[in-house]
Amino acid sequence: MTSAATSPVTEYLRLGLAFDRLEEGFVDAYTGDASLRAEVMNAPSPDPAVLADRARGLRRDLPGDLPAARAEFIAAHLAALECSARRFAGEDIGFVDEVRAYFDVDIALGDEQRYRDAHAAMAVGLEVAGAGDERLTEAYAAYKRADEIPADRVDECVRAFSGALRERVRSAFPLPDNEIVEFEVVSDKPWSGFNYYLGGYRSRVAINTDLTQYMSTLPHLIAHEAYPGHHTEHCRKEEILVGGGQFEQTIFLVNTPQCLMAEGLADHALRAAVGPDWGLWAQEIYADLGLRFDGERAQRMSTASSGLLGVRQDAALLLHDRHLDADSVASFLQQWLLAPPERARQMLRFLTSPLWRAYISTYVEGYRLLDTWLDEVPASGRLARFGRLLDEPLTPAQLRAELGPSGAGP
């Protein structure tokens, strides 16, 4: 019988923890044995090439004494870790291959006609159809200015939506009585929001104040990071999976299939919790706070702009696969996302971060895959199917297998 110290799960955890020695933040969350983490943190600095070899060896030795489903989950993550280790070792890996190894998806440049169609739909929503690109950009900028949350009201709005979503989510997906999310404001980050899961059903959610917060997107941000997004998923998996002995779920690693599933889940969180009329629901909450928000218009604009989902992934491909310069990619982002120069540059910070450069695909391909999978059931069963994402250790390959021939991907 395999001892606990040398079990496939323990070795997987030990390997994953070692990556935080190469790049702080690679371990997004760890709620397992503190002594194991201390052992890894106190060991000599790891050699990336050795980590790649260890990942290959562990994968080769699976399933060991593990059930097939758990072994497949760990194997997919070991493949991602091997690729990360090779990059840390200085190996030149093509960007498309890198994304495939991390997230188990294939990516390609999108169709710009789809982006033109999205602009046309947005122009109708903004009542400037046929007025030209410059007029659309101006109208969209005016729409966004009117949608801004006053800086001194952001904290109040965050807490209002967090409380409202928490109440709705707990009725559908029970959470431990001691679960809690604490919010904080931060700056100088490449992202808009971040969930730090602390274990014990506790999260700290950071909101980046460098970016203006908007009434139309704040409900999505809170749902994404907290209820029923990242925080809810972590709590449910800690209680159900870790509580059931699946200790591989005590670690959450950047640039692995976990991330694609988690970000796809979180980007579907608001609609799962509230439904397609999320804007009208949010309008009532804003009204209670004395803020005017046109929820119906926000829903229309969200639908119209959904065709732009792939633009940021295209930007990553232009940077890292086609090797365009940063100025050209910033112009691409400004053109299709109708973004001001400073917002485009903020996006580039994320796309050029050594740790996060491939991560945009988790939002794009994660949303697409989960959207297809969720739509396989009638609307009445969509919430229950979303619950599977919260409670089960699903992977992109498993979702594609359930979709059958209609499932896209490698």
Task: Give an account of the 3D structure.
- The protein is mainly alpha-helical and 410 residues long.
- It folds into two domains: 4-93, no CATH class; 112-406, no CATH class.
- The protein contains 20 helices and five strands.
- It has a three-stranded mixed beta sheet with strand order 2-4-3, covered by helices on one side. It has a two-stranded antiparallel ribbon with strand order 1-5.
- Strand 3 and strand 4 (202-208) form a beta hairpin.
- The longest helix is centred in the first third of the chain and has 21 residues, at 68-88.
| Gyration radius over CA | 21 Å
- The tally of domains stands at 2
Give the mean pLDDT: 94
What is the oligomer described by this structure? single chain
**How many β strands by DSSP?**
5
How many alpha or pi helices?
20
Classification by helices and strands: mainly alpha
Q: How much helix, percentage-wise, in residues?
A: 55-70%
Q: Main β-sheet, in a few words? A: 3 strands, mixed
Low-confidence blocks of residues: none
The backbone outline, from C-alpha atoms, is globular
Distance between the termini: 36 Å
Beta-strand level of the residues, as a percent range?
Answer: 5-15%
Order of secondary-structure elements: HEHHHHHHHEEEHHEHHHHHHHHHH
